[in-house]
Amino acid sequence: MTDQALITQFQEGDNKEAAFTLLLKRHQENVFFQIKKMVHEHADADDIAQAVWIKVWNKLDSFKQESAFSTWLFRVACNETLNFIAQKKRLKTHSTQNEIDHAFDHPSDHNGLKETSIQIKLERAIAELPDKQRFVFMLRYYEAYDYEKIASITGTTVGGAKANYHQAVKKMTTLFQAS
Amino acid sequence: MHLISDMENESISKELEEALKSFESKNKQVPAGYFDQFELDLMQKIKVQEQAPKRAPIVALFLEHKQYLVAASLFFAIATGFLFFNNVEKNITSVAKVEMIEIETLPDELIEAYVINNEFVAEVEWNTAIETEAALLSKQ
Predict the structure, then answer these.
(1) Min Cα separation B70/chain A (Å)
(2) Is the pTM of this model over 0.80?
(3) By the number of CB atoms within 10 A of the CB, which of A98, A121, B49, B67 ranks highest?
């Protein structure tokens, strides 16, 4: 059953829960890992992912299917993630930079993988990127999404998405080599 | 992982690419059964949300005719202002005019009556003044 058919089933109120659960099963991993790459902390990624899917449940009735469901879903995820990061930065309790600094000062066995200096260098370089640029980079590099889809997800132009990706690669290379 | 392998990534060094690969595998670590539990927790939250009493929607009255209401309000305000200021001006000029008309068109009888009525007051004033002056002169 396609995403479109499931959305139609949901919108017609014909066993909404089953349709939603299938959509969730199909896309939850991609969404979760994209969020996790942005915020690092599992608990934070979990909170954001929950918020994303609740929003999807609430708004799916008004989704007009003008774009692919995955594009719309990632747009919701992008907004939620960027809002979360901005909020966290405002609170200045657990900024990404602090976490990276902490990891840099105290290399530990994190998530079952030994932190190497290369990984820490990379995390530092990633953390230095502006949030939106980081999101664009993750979508392009790891998900191999085309620029049109990335532009649609991040609310920018195709040119803007391309520029963001190339800037991100350039900055990361420089920061990675410098640190 | 769907690492893109076209020309645009040639600028990414081998070392950076390796680090990016390990970054992804590190971020793909989740506790066993995490996604099943995620689904259960989420559906539970949604059920709670659906069962909670829904807030009555706020209905904005006349929302469809908002522009007409704004236009009518503006027209009313301008008209009121115009009428108010115009009226004030009219009152001022009419007072002035009334005074001018009264002075110019007073009938002789009315003037005579006024003089007769006020003659005594005038005389008293004149007499008082003469008496005061006389008293001053006699002192000198």
Answers:
(1) 30
(2) no
(3) A121
